[in-house]
Model the fold of this input.
Amino acid sequence: MKFTMWAFVGLVIYTVLIDFLLYRLFLKSRTEHPPHFKFPYGAFWHYSIASFFIFSFGILYTLITITKTSTTYVVFQWFMMAYMLIYIPKAFYYLTQKIVGRFHLVKHKFDDKGKIKKMNEGKYPKISRKKFLSQVGIITASIPFVSLMFGVIKGRFAFSKRYTKLSFPNLPDSFDGLKIVQISDLHLGSLNSNYQEMEEAVMLINAENPDIICFTGDLVNNFYEETIGWEKVFTKLQARLGKYSIMGNHDYGDYSKWPSAEAKAENLQNIKNAHHRLGFKILNNASSIIEFNGDKIAMAGVENWGHPPFPRYGNLEQASEGIDGVPFKILMSHDPDHWDAEVVPQTDFDLTLAGHTHGMQFGLEFKGFQWSPAKYKFKRWAGLYQADKQFLYVNRGLGYLGMPARVGMPPEITIIELTRGPISNDPM
Ligand SMILES: [Fe+2]
Done:
């Protein structure tokens, strides 16, 4: 609730500030005020577009805390998309005008009246300073616009497989070569009815012939009804030794007000049942022993455990009951913060699988370089981490939330192959 309010306040400040600065910029570059209704320079458009978004988000932020339907999330995410498509390029345009305008070289090309200097005949195009800056601004602003459009049209379903090979000396012989596929953060309500796209993800997963499939939480945004219809897609997932799942912070119905405690409990129970209906064995502070050729490994799962404002229902002690003597142990815990806070200091789980961060659905990754705003919020935000003999893998999520797009942070299918040998990792 508190977060929702601050998110709205931040949005209002950003919107008013960007429009105010841009309007001032336009007025400064003109000798006369543009007509009131001239699009897009007229004052009317500056006030009305900003007012429209502020008013709409005011309603949506209020609705989202009291709504009883997942449709509100869908409406919200498309409003957010429209807003970002307009207001992020605006900021790029403004900053470009200010920064490029200050460059000595750019200043040097034009005289005091903004006309291009008659120097280096033919080197510079015949263009005024105002027009030059405006064109550079438009080009820069089109970068986030095109990227976001690509993220909506293609990026959100451009599934990416990421392979990792891990070696452990304590992995039983029969499990040498075990292939685990991890998926996370489906947020079915956001996917709406894009069944066909997710069928493709299921096909890509099955093509790996996984031994075990792990789904590390956030099946829904908030409501049980989001899961209806998805069994026809996810029951097609195939894994020789089992399909396991856990709950994420969004699976408790905590993000809206309920008419009664019973209604909330019913929603929660229905979400738990949906994990089963979709073909997963849900591990709620519980574990399961996987036996093969007389050897054993343990698969444990905790309920969500996060730092505030995220809920803390996870109980490691309970999840670890009965698996003490098992030589190799895997843990599923939705929030990667749990690994540093409890898993590493208190347990000997060899491998922990987490999700939650979504890589903020935005970032840059190439040849060993990784950047995303997620890194300022989460210590472990994507990929593989090691602490002595323990490993953590953070999946970037298969679905999306908030903005229906992924830019430079494609939906992820993780494939982890376990081998017996000296402790090591080899991102493939
Ligand atoms: Fe999530």
